[in-house]
Structures
1.
Amino acid sequence: MNKLRRFYNQNTKEIWIGIVIIIFIISIIQLFNNFAAKENQEKIEESKNEEQVETKYGKESETIILGRDISEKTKDTYGEIMDQFLTHCVKQEVEQAYNFLSKDCKEMMYPSQEVFKTEYCETKFSGNKTYSFQSWTNVREVIYYVKIFDDMLSTGIANTRNYKEDYITIVKENDEYKLNINSYITKKERNVEEEKENIKIKVNDTKVYMDYELYSITISNYSDKDILLDSREKTDTVYVKDENGATYEALLYENEEEDLIVRAGKKKTITIKFSNSYQAGTRMKMISFSDIILDKEQYNERLEIQVGW
C-alpha cells in the first residue's frame, strides 16, 4: 500500500493525464456509437418507408397479360390516378371524375358531363359499389383491368362472381396523365394513301378498342363511273393485316350499302369496323380492299388497293 501511495505521489500528474485521456477516448467512442446508432435507425426508418411505398400498389402493378410490371417510379402515380377516378365514380362525383378523361375520350365517347354521367357512372356504378384494378398490359399502352362489385359492407352479401368490368388506359396529355375508359384504348393517326386507276384511298386514323378497331377511310373517285368499295359477296375481301401476317376481316354488315358507293368525281369519308381484339404489342401494318367494283352499273371490272404504313 505504501508503495502505491509513493508511486501515486511521484506520478500524480502523469496518472491524471492518463485518466483524462482514457475518459476522452471513451467519450469519443460513445459519441461515435451514438452517431452510428442514430444513422442505423434512420436507415431502418427509410427502409420501412420505402417498403411501404413499394407495397402500396404492389399487387395492382403486377401485369397480367404481357409486358413488364409497372415500374417503381410510376406505379404509385398510376395507382393514385386509378384510385381517385374510381372513387369519384363510386361516389357519383361526376365533375371530378370527368376531369380525369383524355381529350380524345371526351370527344369520341363522352362529349358532355351529362352523357358521361348517364352512360358510364350510372351504368357501371349504380348502387353501392366497390372496385379492384390491376395492370393488364404494359407494352405500348398502359392498360388496367377493372372489376366493379357490389359493396359487401353496405349490402351484407359477399359476391365477387357477379361484377362489371372495364379496361382503362393511362395516357399522357400536355404533361398530365389522363384516362381512356370503357375499353377505349387509343387513337393512332395514319394519314397514308394509295392511288390506282383513278381511285385514291386514304387511311386517316385508327381508333383502337379492346374488342375492335374503327378505321376512318376517305375514298376519292376521279373516274367517270360510280364505284363500289366492296361487292360484299365474300366476307374476307376487306381486311387489315398485322406485322405477323395475320389478317382481320371488316364487319361490313354494319355499313349501309350507300356507305360503300362513291359517285363519279366525288369523295367521301366512311368508318369501317374490324373484328380484331386488342393484342398487346401487335402492330397493324396495312389495309386491303381487294374487291373494288370500278363500275357499279356493269360489275365488269374489279380492283385491289392496299394501303400500308
2.
Amino acid sequence: MTSPGSVEVTAHGDVRVLRIRRDEKLNALSSHIEDELMRALESDDVAGCRCIVLAGGPRAFSAGADLGELRDMSPEQVMAYYRRGGEMYERLAAMPQPTLAAISGWCLGGGLELALACDFRIAATDATFGLPEVEIGIIPSSGGTLRVVRTLGAARAKELILLRTRVNAVDAAELGLITEAVDGDPLERALEHAARLAELPALAVAVAKQAVECAAESSREAALLIERLAYAMLAQTDDARRASDAFNSRG
C-alpha cells in the first residue's frame, strides 16, 4: 500500500510510471515528494527502463510547490532548498530515456515546471495550466522561466508569468505548451506513446534526444557537427546494422 505523500512506481513492460500520491494536497511538491522523485529516477529499476511516464491524480497533476513549507525559511534556506530540489528537475530533463507527463486537472507553478522537464506532455481536456508565482511575490524557480521561453518564446512566456494567464488543455496544445489534449485518460494515451517509444533502439533514442536538446542551444555549425558525429557513431552499432539488413531484405 502506497502511503500519502509518496511516489508510486509501477511497471508496464519496459515502461515505468512514476505517480505522485499526495491527493489531499493536490499533489503539492514538497521537499519530501521531490526527494522521492529523485530517488525513483536514480533507482536501478527506473534508470534501466526504456521510457518514463510521470502522472498525478484525477484532480491535479500537481498544483505547484508546497508554499507552507517555504514560508518560514530564510533566503539562505530557500536557496539551499532550490539547489536540492532543482537537481531533480534537471535530472528528469537529462534522463536518456523519453519522458512523458500524463496530466489531469491542475498543472500549476512547480507542477507545470515538472511537466516541462519532460519530453512530451499529454493532458486531459479538463487540465488547466499556469504559472501564478509572481502574484505572491516570487517567480518560477525550477527551470520554469527557461523552459517556457524555449517552448513558447519570450512573449508567450510573459503572458503566462506576468499576466498569469490560465490556459486550458486545448489552447495549450495549439500553443505548443503540451503535445496533445485527449478526451479520455491521459495516462492511457501516454502509455500508448511510451510503448511505441520503448520499441525503438535505446541508444539511437538517447542520442537523438540529446542532439535535439543541443541544437536548441548551439550555433548552426555546431548543431550540424553534433548531428553528423552522432550519425557516424550510430551507423556502426549492431542495432543500426540489424535494422538496415531487415529493411534491405524487405526490398
3.
Amino acid sequence: MTSALALMAMVAQSALKQLGCVRAVVVGDGLNALGLVRSLGAAGVPVTSAAMRAGSPPARSRFARFERLASKEGGALVDELLRIVAHDHEPPVVFLTEEASVISISAHRERLAGRVRLRLPPQQRVTALTHKAGFQHLAEALRAPIPPFVELRSRLDLPRLGKLKFPCVLKPAAKDYRYGARFKKAYVVGSPEEVARLYQEIEPVCPNMVVQQWIDGNDNDIFFCLQYAANTVDAPLASFTGRKIRAWPPHVGGTASCVAAPEVHAELSSVTAKFFRETGVVGMAGMEFKRDRRDGRFYMIEPTIGRTDFQHEVAVINGVNLPYLAYCFELGLPLPRVQQTVPRRVWREPLIDRWSAQTQGMAHESGFAGARVVDAWWRASDPLPWVDFMTRRLKARWSVLKR
C-alpha cells in the first residue's frame, strides 16, 4: 500500500511538472481563503492569493503569492481575474470563497471560458440556489426535507405568516452587505407581531426577507456535508460530513467550532448528493442541515454553491482535502487518497468560540472530548497569519485598558 501511494505521488509530481506547475488562484480576504491557501500550498500546489488587502490572512501566508484585487464582485472582478491570468500558459484552477464572487463569476462566465478552470452549475441554478426563496422552491418541488417558510418582499406579505408555526427564524433572502452592516445574521422570532416590528425597521434597508419555521435544537444539532462533484450522473468525487459544536452568535450565527461527524455521513452525504444531482449542481458545494430534537429528523437549512464554506478546512484536517482533490481532477492528475483521521479533529476559531462558550455559560473546552483541537489561525509551518491575529487582539485589549 505504501509503495502504491508513493508511486501515485511520483506520477502526480511528474504530471505537475509537465503542466508547468499550474497554479491555483484563491479569491478572498478572510479565514476561509486562508484555509484554502494552506490546504493547497501544503500539498505542493503553487498558490496565488487574489485579495483586496496585502495584510489579509491568505495574503500573509507563506504558501501564497499576493495579487491585489480592486473588487471581489461584479464585472470588475472578472476584469481583475483576466489581468492576473493574462500570462499563464495553462488556465489556473480558481477557488472562490464568497457568495458575491460566485454570483459575479457565474454571470460573466463566457468571458472567462478557456482562461480559468472553475466548475459551476448552470447560471439559472446558481441564481436560484444563492437565493433562499429559490432554494426553498426547488427543495419543495423535489420533496426534499426542508422546513416551511414565507418570503417577505413588502409589508403586504406579512399576513401570510399565519400559515407558519412559531418560533421561526427571520433572515435575508440573499446575501446583502447593507443588511449585514446594521442587523444580526438572523433573528429567532416568537410571533407574527414580532416579525412585523422587526421588519418595519429592516424593510427600508433590505425588503427581501424570509421567515422560516424554527427547527428545535442547539448549535451542535447543526450538521453540514461538503462535496466536490464532476457531473450530475456519478457520485461526488469526495464528500465530508461535519457538525458544529458552537456558533457565534449562538443559535443563529456562523461556525465558531466544528468537528467531523462520520456517524451520520452515509445519510447526509446521500441526501446531499441526490439533491445536487437533481438540481444540476457540480463543482464545490455544501449543504447545511439541522436535526430536530423532537423527532431526530434532518432538515435542509441552506446550500453553499460554487465556493468553500467558512469552516471548509475542517475537512482537510480530518483527511479529506477537497480543494486539492478538485485541483487534481481539473488538471487530470491522479486523485489523492481520502481517508479520515482518527481521532477526529476539531476546527476552532478561538476568539468567537470563546465568546460563544462564555455567552452560554460553557467551559471553553466543552464539546471537544476525545478530539484533537486545531486552531484556525495557528500553524507552525505558517505562523504569520496567527502573529497578525494575536497582534490585533493585543492592540484591541490595550485600547480597552487605555480607556
4.
Amino acid sequence: MQEGALWQHPVEQLLLGSLGILPMAPLATVEPTQLPSVLRRVEERLRQEASPTSADELWAATYLLLGLRYDDRTVSEVVTRMSWLQESSTYQAIRREGLAEGRAVGQLEGRAEGRVDTARRFILDLGSDKFGAPSQTTTSILESISDLSILERLHRRILTASTWAELLASERLG
C-alpha cells in the first residue's frame, strides 16, 4: 500500500489487501452511499477466508473503525439496513455490552432517585403525623431537595422539631 492518509487510498486497495487491513476499507475513499456495498464485500471475504474467531475479531474492528469516519446516524442506518451485520455475533456482543452498561447506569441512577423519593415520602408522612399537613411551600421546598444526606438529616430531626418551619430552618432551607 502506498504512503498517505488512509482516507485518500482507493477502497479497492484495502478490499483486495490482506485480511488484517480489511477492517480499514470503510475508511478509504468511500462515499456513505457506497458503505453497504463495501461492508458486504468485507463480509464476503471474512466468510470465505477467515476462521469464525478471526472473522468475529475483524468484524469488531470494522464496526469500531466505522465511528472514526462516519457519524452515529450513518453507522446506525447502515447497520439497520444490513441485516446480515446485525446477525453478526460481534455486533450482538457489542450491543449486549452497551445495553448491559446502560441498564447498570440506569439502575444506579434509579436506585439513587428512588432513595431520594423514599426519603421525601417518609419526611412528608412522618411530618404530617407530627405537624399536620404541610403547606404547598413546605412541599415545594422538600421536593426541591435532591441531596439524600440532607433528607436523611431532616428525617432524623422530625423527632426533635415541633413544626415544619423549625424542621426546615434546621437545614436553613426555608
